[in-house]
DNA sequence: GTACTTGCAAACAGTTTGCATAGGC
DNA sequence: GCCTATGCAAACTGTTTGCAAGTAC
């Protein structure tokens, strides 16, 4: 998911309709670098669309996932976060502030087979304390 | 979680009671290499304990997790799987048969800081087609 | 005997589904 | 005008919680 227009084009090609709600969800995903969950998107949208429902959000998120425009992160228990950045990278969850950070430093694990299992995708999740929370601790 | 007795000792030290239900859950975790979820454990236990409830299972799983005797795997959406093997290793989920396999091949990522974030734990999840499902496909 | 555990039910959170209506194309 | 998408409610899944009764120690 690079720019809004390319996503809209892809949706159109796949015969999906470009409703205002869908476009608003896509705009949020592109702008929001916090890896929002469905309910974070819902909270942001209900100002503009007071009638917005979760079915619309999940419907759109699942379409975008199937089209390969967003990635789902299983970094928290019982909750899915979404990342519009589909280039190979990984994630860090801060145990203090709960923020998710992108990690580019580690090279992508470029393996096609492990123990004769065919590898199609790989997700790396790091957990710890983010730079900002570390700094605040020292300030105490 | 290596052997039953060491886990029981640890529970006792932490002032937890050794109930038959708890011991049965621990036995299952030690024997079952499939990385069971709470409901898989429930299904196995209800033969022996027809009255078994999920609160007991989650209670015990959370205690064992806090004691560092089991690890929780966020490899599937909206479901937690548990692994009694707490030595550093990673996991593979087969998209065909749904089985979770242990992966020892990749060296543990031994980093303490990335982008100034303090790393306390790291989980690597691989997704693809397992050796067995690949073999069955070829047999077609 | 005391305090923790159990089992049940109910609550809860996140996600999915069914269906009548609205609206994109 | 057709057919998909929306919004609402209800269902559903996995997990957590409150509480009376049971039980390990």
Describe the structure.
The structure is a homodimer of 140-residue chains. The first copy, chain A, contains 5 helices and 6 strands; from the N terminus they run H-H-H-H-E-E-E-E-E-E-H. In chain A, the strands form 2 sheets. The first copy, chain A, has a 4-stranded mixed beta sheet. In chain A, strands 1-2 form a two-stranded antiparallel sheet. The mean pLDDT of chain A is 94. The first copy, chain A, has helices at residues 4-13, 20-31, 38-45, 54-66, 131-139; strands at 71-76, 79-83, 90-94, 100-103, 113-114, 117-129. Chain A has 2 domains: 4-83, Winged helix-like DNA-binding domain superfamily/Winged helix DNA-binding domain (Arc Repressor Mutant, subunit A); 90-136, Dna Ligase, domain 1 (2-Layer Sandwich), CATH 3.30.1490. Chain A is an alpha+beta fold and 140 residues long. Strand 6 of chain A pairs antiparallel with strand 6 (117-129) of chain B. The first copy, chain A, binds a DNA duplex (25 and 25 nucleotides) through residues 15-19, 21-22, 37-39, 51-56, 58-60, 77-80.
CATH superfamily of the largest domain in chain A: Winged helix-like DNA-binding domain superfamily/Winged helix DNA-binding domain
Low-confidence runs of chain A: none
Helical segment count of chain A:
5
- The whole-number mean of residue pLDDT values of chain A reads 94
Question: Would you state the CATH class of the largest domain in chain A?
Answer: Mainly Alpha
Named CATH topology of the largest domain in chain A: Arc Repressor Mutant, subunit A
* Termini gap of chain A: 40 Å
Alpha-carbon Rg of chain A, integer: 17 Å
What is the global morphology of chain A? Answer: globular
What portion of residues of chain A belong to β-strands? Answer: 25-35%
């Amino acid at each position: 998911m690079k720019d809004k227009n390319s996503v809209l084009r892809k949706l159109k090609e796949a015969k999906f309709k470009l409703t205002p709600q869908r476009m608003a969800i896509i705009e949020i995903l592109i702008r929001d670098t916090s890896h929002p969950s469905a309910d974070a998107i819902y909270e942001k949208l209900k100002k503009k669309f007071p009638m917005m429902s979760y079915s619309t959000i999940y419907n759109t998120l699942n379409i975008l996932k199937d089209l390969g425009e967003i990635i789902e992160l299983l970094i928290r228990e019982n909750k899915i976060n979404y990342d519009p950045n589909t280039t190979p990278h990984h994630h860090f969850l801060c145990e203090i502030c709960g923020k998710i950070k992108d990690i580019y430093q580690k090279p992508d694990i470029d393996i096609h087979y492990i123990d004769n299992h065919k590898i199609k995708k790989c997700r790396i999740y790091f957990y710890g304390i983010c730079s900002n929370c570390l700094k605040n601790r020292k300030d105490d």
